[in-house]
Amino acid sequence: MRLSSDLRLTSAALLVASSQALAASFSLLHDYSGANFFDGWDFKDGFDDTTNGDVNYLGQSQASSSGLAVIQNNQAILKVDNSTFVPFNQKRNSVFLTTHEFFQLGSVFVFDAAHIPAGCSVWPSFWTRGPNWPSGGEIDVLENVNLATNNQMTLHTNPGCTQASGVTQLGKTSGSDCSLGANSSQGCTVVESQSNSFGSGFNTAGGGVWATQFDDSGIFVWFWTRDAVPSTVSSATDSIDPSTFGTPSAAWPSSSCNISQFFTPQQLVLDITLCGDFAGTPSVYTQTCGSPGEQANTSSCYVENVINNGSAADSFYAEAYFAINYVKVFSSGAAPLDPVVSGSSTLGLTSITDSFATGTGTAASGATSGSTKAAGSGGSGAVPLLAPGGWGAAIAAVVGALGVAALLGPL
After folding, report:
1. Which domains does the chain show, CATH number per domain?
2. 138 included as an active-site residue
3. What is the pLDDT of residues 1-11, one digit of tens each?
């Protein structure tokens, strides 16, 4: 994945020990909410060079003036353009946001949404990545496509990190090798057991909350539908205690994945793309959006959804939006790492020269290059997304091996 700005974390900062002793309580570090939600986030400006989606990402000023990134009723609204007529061979406008800071081991991320993007061709994500992404790990907290009903949570890492067998979790494991697939494009996925964890079911239920624990003990993701959010989460203002959360939806304990070895400090990401290498894959699109008897081709997703649709009243994308109550970051004590950004204040996508990229940092130990579902060009260890064997080839291989249902959950 390419970054257009010159984003660098100093070697000294990255060599600060990122692992923290397991702590029962984590203190509030950042609260992204209300009128100030967008403070501390950067907007990608350009095409989707991550997953080949049929979108143009808008910078913050244009996204705001176009109504794609606004505050309404004290919620952050992030959406796909649903009012513009898009001619054939053109792309639809959308948004891609990243936090300015990277958060170290010993963090808990809480994401509360009243509504998430839904509909055919729609591919929303809330995820994290390291500063030398795709090296340094990736955590997919919220991700699925089209009309799927169950969220899927995934880790993408360099070889050597796996999910232990027999872990205690509510979700169903569909792959235990977190480096599986070209450039770790498949990773190790857990499909959520709750059918209102994605799409229209999530929205009808009034939304829900995800919490992600990221520390030396492992990586754990919890999900609660709106009427099941525990008071220890909903009332967490100054601190939070994951030991009160109960059984997680997905669990990757450190017994089979040395978190400090495979994960650098992580940046939060929110984005909405359309079609691309997952939602637009013919086998996936056929099962999740195809008409009876239809066999989708590589153009079906784009032709049937992205183009035309000029009226907001009947647009396919009326439901393709996030309504976010808050994103909170809690920490056991480690300060976030603040990158040095030169040039535009808008964060594009580039590789970062740092100790991890050159193999001297902890997370690079024993690792190989090109480790996640999508990789960009430039920088040490980065693998071009569009190279043979990228996202599309990996998805096709996964679908062939596991079947679409294993990836998407019950429909």
Report:
1. 6-408 (2.60.120.200)
2. yes
3. 322 333 333 33
